[in-house]
Amino acid sequence: MGFIDRLRSRTGRRDREDRSERSRTDGQSEEPQTDGQRGELRTDGGSDVRTRGGLSRLKHSDAVQAVPFWLPPALLMGWFVYGAVGWNLLISLTDWSGLSQPDYTNLTLEMYTQMPNDPSFVAAFRNTVVLLVAFTVVSLVIGLVLAILVDQNIRFENTLRTIYLLPMALSFVVTAIFWSWMYNPSTGTINVVLSTIGLDFLTMDWIGDPRTRLAAIIFALTWQFSGYAMVVYLAGLRAIPDSHYEAAKVDGAGSLRMYWRVIVPQLSASTTSAAVVLMVFALKAFDFIFIMFGDNPGRSADILAVMMFRVAFSRTQWAYGAAVATILFLMALSVVAPYLYLQYKRGDL
Amino acid sequence: MREDSSVSRRRYVQLAGGVGVLALAGCTEDEDPDEIDTGNGADDADDTGDSDSEGDLEIVHWWTAGGEEQALNALLDGFEEAYPEHSVENNPAPGGAGAAIDAAIQTRVIDQDPPSTFQIWPGEAVRPYLEADALESIDDVWEDEDAYVDGVIDAAAPDGDLVVAPINIHRLNNLFYNVDVVEDAGIDPTDAENPEDLLDLLEAADDAGYVGLAQQTQEPWGILQFWEMVFLGQYGADTYEQFLAGDAESLESEIADSLELVERISEFHNEDAGTVAWDEANADVITGDAAFHHNGDWAAGEYQGADGFEYGENWEYIPFPGTEGIYTMVMDGFVYPANNPTPEATEAFVSYCTTADAQERFNPHKGSIPPRTDVETDGFPPFLQDQMADFEASDEQTVTISHGSGLEPARADQVQEAFAVFTDNWDVDETTQELIGIF
C-alpha cells in the first residue's frame, strides 16, 4: 500500500469524522464519490484498475493523488536549493571575477585544475578533512561514553542530560569568543588550571601556536557537540530491550564485554545518524573560525568554508569561490549520500 | 464530547495560526513604506521641490557602534540641515570593519541596483568598481580642491578623476607608549630614529620587566600594518610606493631585511598576542603592563575612554621611528555609484562630505582628523589637534595595504594571507618569496 493509504488507515477515525461532517455541510452529492473511493482502496486496484486504462490508473496512483503534498515543496526546493547549486556549478566553470556580469560562453575546468597547485587550497582541504574526521570520531566516542554513564539509572539524570546538551544551544559566535578567552596563554582558564595542578609543562599558546591551533578548535567544537551525540545514543540505548542485558549477564559477560559485544553493535543506526549530522556541522565550522581569526586564519586553521568566503567576497574571484563551494558540496554529498542509500536499503525511507 | 474537543483543538490551531500571521505582518510593517513609493515621492509630506521625483538618500556604511555611530549621526544631521529637501535612509551593514559591507554592496553593484551612496576606502580599494564602470566622477561637486594635500587627492582619484569623497583620516604611523612605564625603564622613545632603534627600546622595557610591544597576531592585519611601518621607516616613502606599484622583485633584499626585523621584534610581544584582539592588547598599555603599542590613532580612543589616563601625562605618542614627516593615512569616503537611484540627493551628499562643515562635525566623534587642512581645530581634543598640526606639516602622505587603500582588494587579501602564514612560522624567506609572487 502507498503512503496515502497508510495515512488514511492511521487517521481512520478522524477521516470518518471529517467525512460525516463534510457530508452534512456539503450536501448529499458528495456521498457516493467518497464511498466509491473507499471501496476502491479496499480492493487495492488489481485487474480491475488495469482494464480502465493508463489515464485512470495515473489519476489514481499515489504520486498523482499526493501532488498537493509534494509539488509545492518540490518546486521551492528545486528552485532555491538545486537551482542555486546548479548555477553555482555553472559559475565555477567560467572565469568570472570583478564586479561585471559573468561570461558563460567559454566554460572550462580551469578553476578546478589550478586547485592542486594552490597551497592555500591544499591546506584548507587537508584541514577540512582532519576536522571532519577527528571532530566526528571524538564527539561520537565521548557521546557514547556519556550516554552509557547517564543510562545507569543515576540520580539527577535529567539535569545531567540537560547540562551536557546545553552547549549545543549556544551560537558559534558566543563559543568562539569565550573559548578564545579560555585559551589565552597568560590569563585563560585552561593554562591557569594546568599550572595550579602542577602541570606547567602542558601549558601552551593554544590558538597562537600553529601546531595546536586546529586541535584547539576541534576540542572546542567537540565540547559543543558531544552532548548531541549523547542524546542520540541515549535514545538508541533505551530502544534495546532489557532482556539483552540480562541474557549477556546470564552468559557471564562482564560489563565491558557486554557493552562491547552486545550493546554497542546494536547502536549502529544511532552512530550513522549522529555521525552524518556531526560531519555536516564540521563542514559548517565557518562561524567559529571566522569569529576568531577573520577570513585569513593562516594555513594551520584554514578550512574550505572560510576559503570560499575569502576568495569570493574579499577577492571578488567569484568563479574560484564557486569552485571551492562545489568541492565543499561534493564532500557533504559524499557524507550524506551513503547514509541515505543505507536508509533506503533498510526500508526507512 | 470527543467532537467538541476536536473542534476546539482545531479552533486553537486556527487562532494560533492567525496570531502568527498577524505577528509576521506586524514585523514587516517596520519596513520603510517610502521604499515602495520610490518614484512617487508626492505622497511623502517631507519631500518638496526638486526631490519630488526621487526617494530618500540610501546610505550604506559600517559605523554602528559608539563614537562611530555618533560621528555618522552628526554628519547626517548636518546634511539634513544643509539640504532640508533631501531625507536620509540610513542602512548600515555592520561587521568586520567592512567585511560585511563588501558582500552587500558587491552583489548590488553587479545587479546594477546600487544604493545612493556607500562607504569605501579611497585608493585602490575602489579599483574593482572602476573596472566595472560602477562609479561616476565627482569632479564637479567637489568643493575647494585647494584645501587638500596632494596625498589625499591622489587617493581620491586613482585614475585621475575624483571618485571618492574622503570624510576622515586616521593616522597609522603612531607609536603609543605608557609614560610611567618608559620612565621606569629609563628609556626615551624620542631617541629612536629608525626602526632598528625600536629594538633597543623594547629590549630595555623587557629588561625592566615589562612587555615591550603590545600586539595582536590573531588576525594578520596587525603584523601586516607593523611591517608596513617598519618598511616605510627603513626605506622611505619612495621605496614603499615602488612596492605598491608592483615592483616587489627588485626589492627582495629590502623586504627580507624588514621582515627579519619584524621577526626579531616579535620576541617582545605580549605572550598572548596570538589569542587577543587589538583592544585587549592595547589594554596592557593602559594597565601599565606594556610599554609600547603600534596602531592607528583609533587606539587613542581606548586611552581617552580609560579613567585617569591622560594624554601627555600618562600616555604619549611619537611618529613611528623613521617615519617623521610622513602621515600614513587610513581614510573612509563616500562615492557616487553609477545607475544611481537618487542622482540629486547623492550629488548633494557627496558635495557636502567635501565641506569643512561636514568634516568638522564628523571627525571629533570618530577620533580622526579632517581631510581638509582649513578646518577649525577648536572642537577637537588636544591629541587630534597635534595630529592635525602633524598632518599639515607632513612632507609626504602614504596609504596602507592593511587598510585597503594601497593595493586592489584581491592583491591586498593575498598579502594578508602571506602575513597570516608569517605569524605562524616567522619564516622570512618564505614570506619574502610569497610577497614577490603576488605581483
Automatic annotation (TrEMBL), chain A:
Stated membrane topology is: Multi-pass membrane protein
**What name is this protein filed under?**
Sugar ABC transporter permease
Which residues lie within the region annotated Disordered? 1-53
Its chief place of residence is membrane
- Output the InterPro entries linked to this UniProt entry: ABC_transporter_permease (IPR051393), MetI-like (IPR000515), MetI-like_sf (IPR035906)
Query: Which UniProt keywords are listed?
Result: Cell membrane, Membrane, Transmembrane, Transmembrane helix, Transport
Q: Where is the composition biased (Basic and acidic residues)?
A: 1-27, 37-51
Task: Show the PANTHER family listed in the entry.
Answer: ABC TRANSPORTER PERMEASE PROTEIN
Q: Which GO terms describe its cellular component?
A: plasma membrane
Specify the ABC transmembrane type-1 domain's residue ranges.
125-341
Q: Which family does it belong to?
A: Belongs to the binding-protein-dependent transport system permease family.
UniProt GO BP: transmembrane transport
Taxonomic superkingdom: Archaea
Q: Where are the transmembrane segments?
A: 67-90, 129-150, 162-182, 214-235, 263-283, 318-341
Q: Where in the cell is it found?
A: Cell membrane
Automatic annotation (TrEMBL), chain B:
Xref: InterPro entries: Bact_solute-bd_prot1, SBP
Task: List every stretch annotated Disordered.
Answer: 25-54
Instruction: Give residue spans, biased composition: Acidic residues.
Output: 28-54
Q: Which residues cross the membrane?
A: none
SUPFAM superfamilies assigned: Periplasmic binding protein-like II
Coiled-coil segments on the chain, per record: none
Q: Which Pfam families match?
A: SBP_bac_1 (PF01547)
**UniProt cross-references to PROSITE patterns, sorted A to Z:** PROKAR_LIPOPROTEIN (PS51257)
Q: What is this protein called?
A: Carbohydrate ABC transporter substrate-binding protein
Question: Native species of this protein?
Answer: Natrialba swarupiae
